């Protein structure tokens, strides 16, 4: 969903002079779960939010809601109003601009979720001989309860029997940190027939009330919802078991409220139906063979990017598919080579919003998420939590600010961020290194006379489009949960500017004239003496060249490569060195020209622990036995080697704890030399490194994008036909200038293949739309994706 919005005439908020100095922000929620938040806009009843949001909905939901809050310094943020749009109504507003009146926010009406109940009546004879009824109530579970302050709630339930002159209440236990609690608690309510207190369960207004609450310990408990069940629906000795949606307190009775203002929203809601996997095989194969198509502009993946030049997010499903099938590097290398052929000056390399830059941007966001968290999150957290003033612009200084102190604070932060980046090469994902290596090679080939182009080709991505952007907007890269406040945002802006210039200047050897602001010019001069150029070049070399970098180098004992039994006399002391590309060992420390062994990391290598201080590096030829100095050192080696081999293809699952001698594996006594291992290898799976990609879903998204632009595909076919037939002087025709067409015949053939595949997919959709689908049946499911942006005036 793409949303552009505007607010006007925001209503009053409690407190003196609240409307005059209203500082507001807007949140976007799925039901009661906040998913996005804008930054705070100062002192305006008609603020403007110029922010775009894109997300895929991972779960069922009922409402998409927008809340406007007034920012408060000393107390909780105060709600101004909200706009809630039910899921069924989203298509009605999709693609249009609409004004919505803000509605009041009542805490007792903000409910979601459902409760599973079981009730029955049992007739009993009491001790005094009278006949009565026992009402048995069992609370089984609840589902989809809201998050409280971004976390799972601590829910409990109260059960009440309410009738004439009677109200009995009982309470369940508190369930900790869950939005889907399983209570499985049973309560008994005794009803005795007598003259003084008669309740006719068939005709009276008696009812059961179930209230859900969040336990707040020291604060007042938060109401989560209620449901009421009339007792008259129960029948003797029959079980009533059903799900009930939670309702607002008092059934959400509304009172007339003041005018709270209006919110203009422009949203686009897309819901895709995913077919069985076999339906997508032809389209997926056509996209995956794109790197092999010559020229690359005639490939299906390039055509998709070409017809969606204006929509940045259109290439995302294609990038995910290529990443999942390990086809991204050859594709982006071919696309980058095509862009470089059309680049005339080295200093403008990869500066535009081209297909190559869009693909690499998406790849870095997907693959580099953990890299950013390891490299930048600690220092970003320190900046946001310490809240030191770093303003150095004389125009923006506040009364009492000391510019020299601010400059010192800013310099300290920049040094920490810069050091974290330039010392992080060993953590850079291998896939990013492969892409940077390819870009560097292509740039050198295109501009052989320029010694700096090999660095600018890499720095234009890793500094300008990755680290600098993450520092500027940490919330967009999941480094912070929300927008930082305006003062912290200003600090991050100054740091981002400096880091961007340090990276580009270090690689291009530019002068300080690139700064427009005098204060930034003066501030940046202090970094020249710290050999920043050398540090940046060293970092770029390590992530983009074949030069081995020592992420770890220690003296260890290596067992001789003969097939003798394990023993100390068979170990020799060697210096072991590991880089992101290879593992090698040497006789002397720092030795580079002579080595005894070098193992390529991108093979089926795997690290395994044999004993407390010994580990193996298992690869395709023979295992390498390594004896570390102690168990701690062995664990460090296992962790480092696990990181650099985590993306290897064909990683071994098992290994032999001993060696193969005298025709037998000494560990399991298996006589087959090629027998699989007898013990599982050491697993090293880092957070956020495994790509969870649903290929069917991504291919369906590609199909939807292509189908919605059938007109452009037809225009491209016409342009190919025109170019193939036209025999006159080569000139750029108007209809051809919209697309990149190098070989019209090859491109036309791919377009025909695309059209045939799309027609078959559309036929499959039509067949399934004609049949009645059952809930939860088969592979068919509905998925939704949203692009969101806010513009609130």
Automatic annotation (TrEMBL):
<feature type="domain" description="C2">
    <location>
        <begin position="1"/>
        <end position="100"/>
    </location>
</feature>
<dbReference type="Pfam" id="PF00168">
    <property type="entry name" value="C2"/>
</dbReference>
<feature type="compositionally biased region" description="Polar residues">
    <location>
        <begin position="769"/>
        <end position="784"/>
    </location>
</feature>
<dbReference type="InterPro" id="IPR023152">
    <property type="entry name" value="RasGAP_CS"/>
</dbReference>
<keyword id="KW-0677">Repeat</keyword>
<dbReference type="InterPro" id="IPR039360">
    <property type="entry name" value="Ras_GTPase"/>
</dbReference>
<keyword id="KW-0343">GTPase activation</keyword>
<dbReference type="Pfam" id="PF00779">
    <property type="entry name" value="BTK"/>
</dbReference>
<feature type="domain" description="Ras-GAP">
    <location>
        <begin position="310"/>
        <end position="504"/>
    </location>
</feature>
<dbReference type="InterPro" id="IPR001562">
    <property type="entry name" value="Znf_Btk_motif"/>
</dbReference>
<protein>
    <submittedName>
        <fullName>RAS p21 protein activator 2</fullName>
    </submittedName>
</protein>
<dbReference type="InterPro" id="IPR008936">
    <property type="entry name" value="Rho_GTPase_activation_prot"/>
</dbReference>
<keyword id="KW-0479">Metal-binding</keyword>
<dbReference type="InterPro" id="IPR001936">
    <property type="entry name" value="RasGAP_dom"/>
</dbReference>
<dbReference type="InterPro" id="IPR000008">
    <property type="entry name" value="C2_dom"/>
</dbReference>
<dbReference type="GO" id="GO:0005096">
    <property type="term" value="F:GTPase activator activity"/>
</dbReference>
<feature type="domain" description="C2">
    <location>
        <begin position="111"/>
        <end position="244"/>
    </location>
</feature>
<dbReference type="GO" id="GO:0035556">
    <property type="term" value="P:intracellular signal transduction"/>
</dbReference>
<keyword id="KW-0862">Zinc</keyword>
<feature type="region of interest" description="Disordered">
    <location>
        <begin position="764"/>
        <end position="793"/>
    </location>
</feature>
<feature type="domain" description="PH">
    <location>
        <begin position="549"/>
        <end position="646"/>
    </location>
</feature>
<dbReference type="Pfam" id="PF00616">
    <property type="entry name" value="RasGAP"/>
</dbReference>
<dbReference type="InterPro" id="IPR011993">
    <property type="entry name" value="PH-like_dom_sf"/>
</dbReference>
<keyword id="KW-0863">Zinc-finger</keyword>
<dbReference type="InterPro" id="IPR035892">
    <property type="entry name" value="C2_domain_sf"/>
</dbReference>
<dbReference type="GO" id="GO:0008270">
    <property type="term" value="F:zinc ion binding"/>
</dbReference>
<dbReference type="InterPro" id="IPR001849">
    <property type="entry name" value="PH_domain"/>
</dbReference>
């Amino acid at each position: 969903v793409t949303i552009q919005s505007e607010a006007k005439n925001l209503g009053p908020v409690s407190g003196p002079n609240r409307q005059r100095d209203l500082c507001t922000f807007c949140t976007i929620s799925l039901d009661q779960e906040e998913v996005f938040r804008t930054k705070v806009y100062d002192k305006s009843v008609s603020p403007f939010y110029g922010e775009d949001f894109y997300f895929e909905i991972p779960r069922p939901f009922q409402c998409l809601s927008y809340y406007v809050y007034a920012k408060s310094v000393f107390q909780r943020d105060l709600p101004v109003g909200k706009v809630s749009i039910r899921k069924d109504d989203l298509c009605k507003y999709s693609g249009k601009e609409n004004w919505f009146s803000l509605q009041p926010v009542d805490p007792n009406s903000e409910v979601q979720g459902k409760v599973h109940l079981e009730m029955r009546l049992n007739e009993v004879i009491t001790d005094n001989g009278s006949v009565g009824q026992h009402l048995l109530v069992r609370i089984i579970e609840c589902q989809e309860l809201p998050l409280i302050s971004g976390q799972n709630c601590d829910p409990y339930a109260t059960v009440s029997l309410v009738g004439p002159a009677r109200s009995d209440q009982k309470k369940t236990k508190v369930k900790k940190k869950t939005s889907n609690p399983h209570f499985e608690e049973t309560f008994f309510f005794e009803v005795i027939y007598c003259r003084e207190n008669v309740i006719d369960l068939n005709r009276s207004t008696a009812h059961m009330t179930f209230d859900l609450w969040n336990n707040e310990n020291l604060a007042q408990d938060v109401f989560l919802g209620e449901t009421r069940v009339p007792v008259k629906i129960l029948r003797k000795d029959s079980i009533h078991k059903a799900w009930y949606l939670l309702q607002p307190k008092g059934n959400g009775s509304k009172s007339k409220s003041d005018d709270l203002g209006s919110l203009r929203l422009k949203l686009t809601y897309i819901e895709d139906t995913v077919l069985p996997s076999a339906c997508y095989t032809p389209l997926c194969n056509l996209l995956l063979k794109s790197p092999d198509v010559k020229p690359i502009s005639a490939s299906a993946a390039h055509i998709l990017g070409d017809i969606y030049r204006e929509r940045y997010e259109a290439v995302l499903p294609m990038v995910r598919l290529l990443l999942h099938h390990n086809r991204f590097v050859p594709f982006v290398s071919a696309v980058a080579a095509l862009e470089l052929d059309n680049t005339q000056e080295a200093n403008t390399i990869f500066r535009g919003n081209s297909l190559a830059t869009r693909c690499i941007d998406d790849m870095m966001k997907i693959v580099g998420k953990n890299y950013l968290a390891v490299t930048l999150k600690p220092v970003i957290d320190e900046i946001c939590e310490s809240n030191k003033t770093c303003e150095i612009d004389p125009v923006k200084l506040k009364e009492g600010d000391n510019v020299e102190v601010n400059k010192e604070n800013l310099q300290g932060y920049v040094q920490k961020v810069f050091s974290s980046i330039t010392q992080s090469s060993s953590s850079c994902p291998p896939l990013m290194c492969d892409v940077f290596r390819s870009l560097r090679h292509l740039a050198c080939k295109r501009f052989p006379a320029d010694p700096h182009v090999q660095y600018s080709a890499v720095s234009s991505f890793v500094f300008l489009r990755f680290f600098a952007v993450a520092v500027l907007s940490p919330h967009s890269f999941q480094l912070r949960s929300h927008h930082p406040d305006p003062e912290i945002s200003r600090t991050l802006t100054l740091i981002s500017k400096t880091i961007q210039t340090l990276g580009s200047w270090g690689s291009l050897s530019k002068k300080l004239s690139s700064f427009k602001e005098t204060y930034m010019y003066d501030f940046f001069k202090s970094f020249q003496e710290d050999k920043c150029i050398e540090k940046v070049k060293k970092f770029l070399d390590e992530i983009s060249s074949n030069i081995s970098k020592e992420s770890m180098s220690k003296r260890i004992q290596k067992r001789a490569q003969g097939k003798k039994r394990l023993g100390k006399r068979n170990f020799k002391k060697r210096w072991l060195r590991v880089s992101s590309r290879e593992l090698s060992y040497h006789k002397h420390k720092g030795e580079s020209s002579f080595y005894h062994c070098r193992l390529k990391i991108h093979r089926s290598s795997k690290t395994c622990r044999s004993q407390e201080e010994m580990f193996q590096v298992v690869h395709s030829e023979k295992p390498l036995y390594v004896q570390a100095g102690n168990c701690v050192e062995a664990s460090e080696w296992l962790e480092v080697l696990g990181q650099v081999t985590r993306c290897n293809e064909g990683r071994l699952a098992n290994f032999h704890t001993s060696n193969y001698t005298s025709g037998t594996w000494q560990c399991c006594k298996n006589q087959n030399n090629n027998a699989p291992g007898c013990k599982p290898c050491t697993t090293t799976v880092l957070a956020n490194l495994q790509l969870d990609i649903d290929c069917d879903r991504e291919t369906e998204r590609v199909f939807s994008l292509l189908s919605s632009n059938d007109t452009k595909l037809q225009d491209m076919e016409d342009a190919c036909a025109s170019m193939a037939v036209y025999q006159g002087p080569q000139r750029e025709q108007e209809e051809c200038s919209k697309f990149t067409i190098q070989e019209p015949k090859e491109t036309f053939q791919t377009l025909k293949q695309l059209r045939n595949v799309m027609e078959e997919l559309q036929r499959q959709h039509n067949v399934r739309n004609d049949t009645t689908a059952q809930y939860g049946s088969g592979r068919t499911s509905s998925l939704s994706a949203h692009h969101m942006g806010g513009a609130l005036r």
